[in-house]
Amino acid sequence: MTSGDLPLFLGQLLRNPREISAVVPSSRALATAMAAGLTPGHGPVAEFGPGTGRITRGIIARGIAPEDLTLYEMNAAFCGRLRQSFPGVHVVNRPAQQAARDFDGTLAAVVSGLPLLSMPEAVQNEIVSAAFRALRHDGRFIQFTYGPKPPLREDTRHALGLSATAGPLVWNNIPPARVYIYRRSAE
């Protein structure tokens, strides 16, 4: 995290507490776990809800080229910081649902830091449906959660025909978080 990220994050948390779901930015350990399955040159990647860019740094550290990475962030202040911090990365100040129109089945992966469990079911369904319309058939949706429950409701996962794999539990994060990887179920 750069020296200005924490003050920006805390300022936005105080101004927009409903938009910011965490009390501090994600840890480097969580960023590494979220990006672990990404492969350079395998195709474009989108990140939903990058905030100040901690997970973005993990994605780039995995070798994903800036021109192959698109960030969807609703907070304009975060977008400004992301543009400064990540030259060459496409930063979009629009909802994650826009990815379906922007990529239409060409993304290799979506990495999401959005607080899905705290969203209304209809919004959660819109976001995840859009992600899978943007993803290739073999694409992955990578999401973390702070609680003991998977980040997607079981009925949403079933309705969308998705399978889930629980990834690592990252203790070195405040609060600890578990990574989940969602794919289309085998037909």
Describe this structure in words.
It is built from seven helices and seven strands, in the order ααβαβαβαβαβαββ. Helix 3 links the parallel strand 1 and strand 2 (69-72). The radius of gyration is 15 Å and the shape is globular. The relative contact order is 0.16. Mean pLDDT is 88; it is low at 7-14. It has one domain (5-184): Vaccinia Virus protein VP39 (Rossmann fold). 33% of the residues lie in helices and 24% in strands. It has a seven-stranded mixed sheet with strand order 3-2-1-4-5-7-6. By secondary structure, the protein is of the alpha/beta class.
Uncertain stretches? 7-14
Q: What oligomerization state is this entry in? A: single chain
| CATH topology value | Rossmann fold
Which secondary-structure class do the elements indicate?
alpha/beta
Secondary structure topology:
Blueprint: H1 5-15, H2 28-35, E1 45-48, H3 54-61, E2 69-72, H4 76-85, E3 90-92, H5 99-103, E4 107-112, H6 121-134, E5 135-145, H7 154-159, E6 162-170, E7 177-184
Parallel strand pairs: 1-2, 1-4, 2-3, 4-5
Antiparallel strand pairs: 5-7, 6-7
Helix pairs in contact: 2-3
